[in-house]
């Protein structure tokens, strides 16, 4: 069969048929064979449900009489598939000029992502739907350019903001509590006194005062209620134990020695 009919392309050839590979130009010994087909005026093979153009150059040798024409052996089919995959990768990595809706001007880059609409929100799909946190430009897309595209830089910025918002939603008070605890500890440590007869401070009372000051700074407590309370917000510490003077201690020691 020397003619190639569009759409008529059996994947295998009966075993009793003599086979001639149009790429090798020889009758190689192969376990699998595929018949060439035409689609849209292009020569190729069908693998699965997809049409793959033929990227290999056929041999100039004529098919001998008694051999079936328009066959490709399994080795050439694998080489053709590798070349198709390489061409697809090169086309995806190729830089192209598009209009970024967040930048509001033309950019030339290889990474572009289409915006999607989900539940009334604009966003993009990266395994899951991620809302668009960046503000689109007010400039309209020029004629002849695709709409609703963002560049790779804006995609990374949007993903960073999404990660930050998720972290803040899980730990809303983490930053404030850590800052308050550090300031309270530093303030408490700065009150350490040296010397035996220095006035002592109640650490529990000091911690309560620090917490109250922190709440005042964040606006969690009304200042009027603290400054003029009906009931004090912090109960004052009891009177510290009176320390004896150095003279009294010396007199007691002298009495004991006698």
From TrEMBL:
<keyword id="KW-0805">Transcription regulation</keyword>
<feature type="region of interest" description="Disordered">
    <location>
        <begin position="236"/>
        <end position="258"/>
    </location>
</feature>
<dbReference type="Pfam" id="PF14047">
    <property type="entry name" value="DCR"/>
</dbReference>
<dbReference type="GO" id="GO:0003682">
    <property type="term" value="F:chromatin binding"/>
</dbReference>
<feature type="compositionally biased region" description="Polar residues">
    <location>
        <begin position="178"/>
        <end position="192"/>
    </location>
</feature>
<dbReference type="InterPro" id="IPR025891">
    <property type="entry name" value="Dppa2/4_C_dom"/>
</dbReference>
<dbReference type="GO" id="GO:0005634">
    <property type="term" value="C:nucleus"/>
</dbReference>
<dbReference type="InterPro" id="IPR039590">
    <property type="entry name" value="Dppa2/4"/>
</dbReference>
<protein>
    <recommendedName>
        <fullName>Developmental pluripotency-associated protein 2/4 C-terminal domain-containing protein</fullName>
    </recommendedName>
</protein>
<keyword id="KW-0804">Transcription</keyword>
<feature type="domain" description="Developmental pluripotency-associated protein 2/4 C-terminal">
    <location>
        <begin position="18"/>
        <end position="80"/>
    </location>
</feature>
<dbReference type="GO" id="GO:0048731">
    <property type="term" value="P:system development"/>
</dbReference>
<keyword id="KW-0539">Nucleus</keyword>
<feature type="region of interest" description="Disordered">
    <location>
        <begin position="169"/>
        <end position="202"/>
    </location>
</feature>
<feature type="domain" description="Developmental pluripotency-associated protein 2/4 C-terminal">
    <location>
        <begin position="98"/>
        <end position="158"/>
    </location>
</feature>
